[in-house]
Amino acid sequence: MVTHVSAEARGDERGALLAFVEAQRGGLRRAVLGLSDEQAARRPSASALSLSGLVKHVAEMELNWLRMGQRKPNERARTQDSYGDSFRLVEGETLTGTLAFWDSVAREVEEFIRAVPSLDDTFPLPEAPWFPKDGEVSMRWLMLHLVEEIGRHAGHADIIRESLDGKTAFELVALEQGYPSQN
């Protein structure tokens, strides 16, 4: 899991955007490092957010934006009634399975972004009060939005993980790299 994003090869904007998205994914993935399903489902604050719920939400969010960019229907589309389930694991779901699903989404995002003719290509935004009427965004915007959205939730995950067992993001980087725990 990337912690530092190296400079892109000259002119490789797609690679740079993909690297920044992957760095944000890594922050969220590290937050669940070494946790059981039960630990990852805990909600240690007044918020309804859990680490496993954040992982699931981000994986589904990323899939949703990918499908919009591809102009394909989202096979995991949520309704108003099922939206809450995007923030928690439901019966039969595990953290391991959710991470594997997210891995498959991440691979598909990379394949798609590398294959689009231009990052200037656009797709329509859905009708929603928070989007402009008849709005369109570019593939570049899509990637920047993924950096923003995943980064926001990685920050939530840092706070939740620290509340669970005191492990900070830097300690988790060290743990991931095989360094001894500081606790």
Describe the model.
The chain is mainly α and 183 residues long. Helices cover 54% and strands 3% of the residues. The longest helix has 27 residues. The two termini are 22 Å apart.
Mean pLDDT value: 92
Q: What best-fitting shape do the alpha-carbon axes yield?
A: globular
Helix tally? 6
Instruction: Report the sheet-strand fraction.
Output: under 5%
Number of strands: 2
Estimated helix fraction: 40-55%
Radius of gyration: 17 Å
Largest β-sheet summary: 2 strands, antiparallel
Strand order of the largest sheet: 1-2
**Helix-strand pattern:** HHHHEEHH
Low-confidence stretches: none
Provide the structure class. mainly alpha
Annotate the secondary structure layout.
Elements: H1 13-31, H2 37-40, H3 51-70, H4 95-115, E1 122-124, E2 136-138, H5 139-165, H6 169-176
Antiparallel strand pairs: 1-2
Task: Provide a brief overview of the structure.
This protein has 183 residues and is mainly alpha-helical. It has helices at residues 13-31, 37-40, 51-70, 95-115, 139-165, 169-176; strands spanning 122-124, 136-138.
List keywords for this structure.
globular, 6 helices, two-stranded antiparallel ribbon, mainly alpha, 183 residues, 54% helix
